[in-house]
Structure formats: C-alpha cells, structure tokens
Amino acid sequence: MIYQSAQLDAMEQRYRAAFVNSLSGFKAANLVGSCDADGQYNLAIMSSVVHIGSHPPLLALVLRPDDAKQHSLQNILSQKHYTLNHVSEDIFKAAHQTAARYPKEISEFDAVGLDTQQLADFPAPFVKAAVVKLGMLLRDHKKLEINGTHLIIGEIVLACVPDSIIGDDGSVDIGAANTVTLSGLDSYYSTSRLARMPYAKP
Ligand SMILES: Cc1cc2nc3c(=O)[nH]c(=O)nc-3n(C[C@H](O)[C@H](O)[C@H](O)COP(=O)(O)O)c2cc1C
Known about the structure:
The protein is an alpha+beta fold. The strands form 3 sheets. A 7-stranded antiparallel beta sheet has the order 3-2-6-9-10-5-4. The chain has a 3-stranded antiparallel beta sheet with strand order 1-11-12, with no helix packed on it. It has helices spanning 5-10, 13-21, 71-79, 92-97, 108-112, and strands at 27-28, 30-35, 41-46, 50-54, 57-63, 81-86, 116-117, 126-127, 133-143, 150-160, 181-183, 187-189. The protein has one domain (29-189): Electron Transport, Fmn-binding Protein, Chain A (Pnp Oxidase, Chain A, Roll), CATH 2.30.110. The chain has 5 helices and 12 strands. The structure holds flavin mononucleotide. Residues 42, 44-48, 62-64, 69-72, 96, 99, 101, 182, 185 line the site of flavin mononucleotide (FMN).
C-alpha cells in the first residue's frame, strides 16, 4: 500500500506515531544522564542521537517539544553537561523503563535499578553498566520552528570505551559491546555485522 500525505494525516494519532517512528530505519539506543542544579539525577532513553561531525566531535539529539515536562531538556539547557550511555543487551529492559514519566524528585537510576558512575570529575552521571559512555558538553541549541522540537548539539568531551573493542584504525566494534539498536519506540534488536567494506572509490 502506498501512503500519501492525506493517509498519513488521517491516521489515528498513536497509530501514526508508531508508523512514522518506524520509518527512519534502525536507530541508536542511548540513555541520557543529566542532573539539575541541586544534584538531582535524571536518566531517559533516547533514540534520536545522530553524528554531526568528527572534528570537533559532535552528536545531535532531538528532544520532544513538551518543555515543561522534559527533565532531560531542562537539565541539559541549565547545566550544559550530560552523558550518553549505549544501551546493551543486558540493560535494555531497565533502559526502556526510564521512558516512564517519573516525578522530578525520583531518579530513574534508582527507579529502574541502574547504578550511577562518576568519571573524571564529569558533572553529569554515567550508567555504570553501559560499555560505551560519553560525556557531552552542550554547544548549540535550536528550537525547530516546524514542530517545536529541540535540536541539541553536544561535543563529546569524554569517551569511555574499552580498549578491547577499539580496532587498529580507530573504529569501535559496538557489536562486541553488545550495543542494541532500536526500531520505533519499543522494538529492540541485537546486531550481527555482515561485513566491513573497503573505502568506496569511483
Ligand atoms: C525507545 C524510546 C526512544 C525515545 N527517544 C526519545 C528521543 O529521541 N527524544 C525524546 O525527547 N524522547 C524520547 N523518548 C521519550 C523519553 O524517554 C521520555 O519522554 C522520558 O520520559 C523523558 O524523561 P525526562 O522527563 O526524565 O527527560 C523515547 C522513548 C522511548 C521508549
């Protein structure tokens, strides 16, 4: 079946959200760790992390428009530091549960049973069980006029990656770290590499 704008528009809201959320392909699964000015920790799963550039090392994150209720957004904008923690097979269920709307005074770390970790005096909390952990510094923020979502661009200022999964050329074998991938808002997949390809030339 071919869906055009009229059909997409006519879909029931939740059905459309599930449908459209599946269309961008497999997505990264990350836990966003942050804290507020009082040191209250927050953790939320996000699938919108994308690579912006390597030098400086930048990653973008898209946050929902619901400003008042998004603790991650408030914390990132006010404290500038946040963490990205790859979701691996052993923690994906707990990671998913962080999407629940816990009150601000409840840390999702405690609520879902994931331990925090401090690394190198970085001001935001890491997920201890995550194999790949990134410390991020907010570098740019744009509220997108088209739908009110927030584009957050952060610089990787700390990367905690086991030596054993870093190749001679610098590539990181995130499959060996058991990092999962996501489809839509609720489907988690394990991965297996098909091949590594040579640099493409004409
Ligand atoms: C699989 C999955 C992916 C998600 N990705 C995002 C995302 O990229 N951006 C976003 O704003 N919310 C995303 N969410 C929703 C947040 O996890 C959810 O709104 C959470 O309650 C936010 O927590 P906070 O208020 O503590 O920041 C996602 C939820 C799930 C289940």
